[in-house]
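Look over this record as teaching material.
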Amino acid sequence: MTKPALLVMDVQQAITERVPDPGYTPRLARAVAAARAAGVPVVYVVVGFRPGHPETRSSPMFSGLPEGAFTEGDPGAAIHPDVAPEPGESIVTKKRVSAFTGSDLDLVLRGGGIGHLVLTGLATSGVVLSTLRQAADLDYRLTVLADGCGDADPEVHRVLTEKVFPRQAEVTTVDDWIAGLS
């Protein structure tokens, strides 16, 4: 069987503040706790830049970030405390929307013998979509925890999780995924 890892993507303070669902981070915390209990590695993916944001200058999406945003020391860049990493868990910093772009995620995963990604994160139409597409092209097996993802547009979230993602991934809920771990 292909070894899984739970990816917790872009669940950073400045991003989670925009999520209207107050149950999101507690629900995701249950998935993280269950993964740890089952011996499934938890890998955190965060967006982060150098001071002055030299990596963003060519990016229409990121070039407008305020000075200091998502740099070391920015409180908004911190992983939400409900799902904070434990010592020894990998934190991968990315420079674009996909968790793979501008990061060493593929090296971390392959080095750990990971071939099955369980995707969670914010936003469904951003990091989750981009990572799913790139991971599929890299031949990873994929699961998406639909309620472990969130988007500012509930209809976009619904269409992606019900119509688009099932073409390349198993789509399930946090509770159903946890039940399958035992």
Notes: The chain is about 30% helix and 20% strand.
